[in-house]
Amino acid sequence: MSIYTRTGDQGETSVIGGRVSKDDIRVEAYGAIDELNGFVGQARSMMDDELFADVREQLLEIQHELFDCGSDLAYAKLDEGKMKVTGDMTERLERWIDVLQAGNPPIERFILPGGTGLASVLHVCRTVCRRAERRTVTLGRSQEINGETVAYLNRLSDYFFALARTANTRLGVTDVEYIRGAKVFRD
Q: How many CB atoms lie within 10 A of CB 25?
């Protein structure tokens, strides 16, 4: 099987139910999700199998779910019966975030992305996820989409923030607070 088709050589690509320009907002949205999936794979590959066994499995599940998000966005016309992203997925992310946060030190200020190499990549995941969310919101303003995808991406960026902090904590590195700002997080 050939991996090239030549069908996109004129600047168009196929979506489920039609063809669009490669710079169509739909392609931008699911393309950002695809980019995010690449960074998630990078982060997962950097994790020690034992120290991060719990979250390695979570990240693998998230990678599959990112394909689900892209699939849902690839429909030229919303077909609710075929949507894969559900509110249950977002609720599960919330439970995972709560567990991660319980093991992280308290936070009072914004933190700078970084610390360990792994935490840095997880912060890249967070920021790319935010971009994917913005592109998806833009798409949703002009076309019908599965709204659960926006909620999922929103929560997923929170997950990456919590996980970046967990990576630093488990690897014995302190997060660096943004010192020019006020205390913004309170119990």
A: 17
Angle at 96 between CA 130 and CA 54, to 5 degrees: 110
What does the angle CA 43 – CA 164 – CA 115 come to, to the nearest 5 degrees?
A: 95
Domain range holding 59? 12-177
Q: For 49-56, what is the mean pLDDT?
A: 96
CATH number at residue 107: 1.20.1200.10
Which tens digits make up the pLDDT trace of 162-171?
A: 999 999 999 9
Q: State the Rg of the chain over Cα.
A: 18
Specify if 107 maps to a domain. Answer: yes
Total domain count, the chain: 1
Contacts of 176 (CB under 8 A, 6+ apart): 111, 112, 114, 115
Angle between helices 147-170 and 87-102 (to 10 degrees): 20
For the chain, helix (H) and strand (E) counts, in that order, are 5, 4
- The number of residues making up the chain comes to 187
